[in-house]
Specification:
Elements (H helix, E strand, L loop, with lengths): L3 H22 L1 H10 L7 H22 L10 H22 L4 H5 L1 H5 L23 H12 L4 H29 L1 H9 L13 H12 L1
Helix pairs in contact: 1-3, 1-8, 4-7, 7-8
Length: 216
């Protein structure tokens, strides 16, 4: 079993990763780069993604190294339900990709078009899942994390990642309100942030009306 010191080191590695990730993604740093090193901006998003993947290797290596005996393992019908939830989370993530501009997310569009703007250029739109939750990827991520078997290092990672999803969603909300203004405020009043609620969602017509009013 991993020791307390090892688990603490793993938690610290995740914390350092989250701080660096948030700092690089911040509007403050992007604004500074746009002002002082404008020529870097077209490759900023692509470089951010590459750096995020490289930095992720550290916590993942510790997670693998500090693996211990299971705290619990799903059995029987519980395992079927857990695997269904995890498969559904993966399938939901893949399904939602079709509603995003993948070139914008990866950063290849900005690089090819030599985009120097600080703000993301993707227009405000609502995928089917966005009618039920404002941050579907974070929600699906938490479903995947907590539906699996659990051992100490994975539990620490799940806690740290879930905290980051919660805090990160708040940080992202600030940027989205800056990017999209009043329409995002009205959208946020109607749809929950991280966990879908049966009584708070947009019907197809409500979502269409919100987007139509925004475009007028």
């Amino acid at each position: 079993m991993p020791t307390f010191s090892q688990l603490s080191l793993l938690a610290l590695a995740w914390l350092v990763y989250f701080i660096i990730h948030s700092f690089i993604a911040s509007l403050g740093l992007k604004g500074w780069v746009a002002k002082h090193h404008t020529s870097w901006m077209p490759s900023y998003r692509l470089g951010f993604n590459l750096l995020a993947v490289l930095l992720l290797l550290g916590p993942l290596w510790l997670l693998h190294t500090f693996q211990g005996d299971p705290l619990w393992q799903w059995q029987g019908y519980e395992k079927v339900i857990a695997n269904t939830l995890r498969f559904g989370a993966i399938a939901g993530f893949i399904w939602t990709l079709r509603y995003y501009d993948s070139s914008e997310i990866l950063g290849t569009r900005q690089l090819l078009q030599k985009e120097t703007s600080v703000e993301d250029q993707e227009r405000f739109h609502l995928s089917p899942m966005h009618r039920y939750v404002r941050h579907p990827w974070y929600f699906l991520g938490m479903v995947y994390l907590w539906a699996g078997d659990m051992e100490p290092a994975w539990l620490v990672s799940c806690i740290m990642l879930s905290l980051y999803f919660i805090i990160g969603s708040r940080i992202e909300e600030r940027k989205l309100r800056i990017y999209h203004g009043d329409i995002y405020k009205r959208y946020a009043e109607a749809v929950p942030g991280l966990v879908p609620l049966p009584w708070r969602y947009l019907s197809i017509k409500q979502a269409s009306d919100l987007l139509q009013n925004h475009s007028e």
